[in-house]
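Standup notes, structure subgroup. Blocker cleared on the flavin mononucleotide input:
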Amino acid sequence: MKRVIVGITGGIAAYKAAEVVRGLCTRGIEVHVLMTEAATRFITPLTMQTLSGNPVVVDMFAEPRLWNVQHVAYARRADLVLVAPATASFIGRLAAGIADDMVCATILATKAPVVIAPAMNSQMYRHPAVQANLDRLRDMGYHLIAPEEGELACGERGEGRLAEVARIIAEVLKHLERKADLAGKNIMITAGPTREYIDPVRFVSNPSSGKMGYALAGAARDRGARVVLVSGPTALRPPSGVQVIPVTTTAEMLAAVLEHFPEMDVVIKAAAVVDYRPQTTAEQKLKKGSDKLVLTLERNPDILKLLGERKGDKILVGFAAETQSLVENAREKIKAKNLDLIVANDVGQRGAGFGTDTNIATIIRRDGTMREIPLCSKQELAHHILDEVVALTGGERG
Ligand SMILES: Cc1cc2nc3c(=O)[nH]c(=O)nc-3n(C[C@H](O)[C@H](O)[C@H](O)COP(=O)(O)O)c2cc1C
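Run returned:
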């Protein structure tokens, strides 16, 4: 029997948590409810205790009714933690790592997947502080269920209404069913841009944020793989439990990738490497001597092609960021680089490509068949890609 910890925080939508808990229980899931003090102002612990059939914890310091050192006990026993509704205040506390309530403390102590469904007034939701905190949570690998647009309890219309109960339950079930289908596999993922220095303070690069590669690393780890993440310079915090190898130039990335290649089962090249580098790098900062500066660039090694040439039975996945003829160019790249899969995205489309939290992609297999993935978070896309990888390793496609 799967065990889900449901955290309820103090928003007007807290009453809907009753339906979520009931829905999970009727699907044979063992549910334990944790509430913030504020949540108890909206719905009673008695209601949640009756629906879940288990004691509800509000006060971290109260005498434990079920397990000792409660936040750690719940954290360890959880197959999944769901927070619905999640207030702006809770989102800020979790993003800052503050553990002064039972819901936050449990999440900080758990290794289980955490699903968070925010709900609040639309102005609050759009506030840059709330959006920045949500970005941080996404970067940390938490799964967010975006709120819906519609009539809000405060009388306004807009984005911020708790996602439909059925959607929340479906999301929980999806994560619970996700097996450790990459257990025992070694996966290397490259991420971010590379940099090629012109002089000590100037470089040639691109706007890759690394978010896609980091999402893949977190997702592969969640599915049981041992993950090596070779990362160019990014502003992201690497997912915990992943071996990170920081690099700067394409040559450094190549060296790191080749060093670890022999022990890998799967390599996913999500990095946006710089194809050309300055022929020479000035040792001192270049002075503004003349009106023009002519740089001569030379080809960098093609990491993906080199891996394709020596891949054997390893699975090799590439990315194709294109602005035109997406599928044709991607199909050609599969052949030219000896890949098993390619993830093609049209970086010209809104919501896709560099720096965004979302992506729109077409996953193309070696036999030419394809799967279109509509606009989704980079985390979700990461799981779609890994589903395909699992299918290639002989498992079932999710
Ligand atoms: C009537 C009422 C409704 C509220 N609804 C929300 C809400 O939907 N979302 C939200 O983020 N905060 C809402 N708040 C504010 C939170 O209750 C408040 O920030 C509280 O400190 C949250 O505590 P918690 O995050 O520990 O549960 C509401 C407050 C009141 C009085």
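Discussed briefly. The chain has 13 helices and 19 strands.
Next: hand off to the docking folks.
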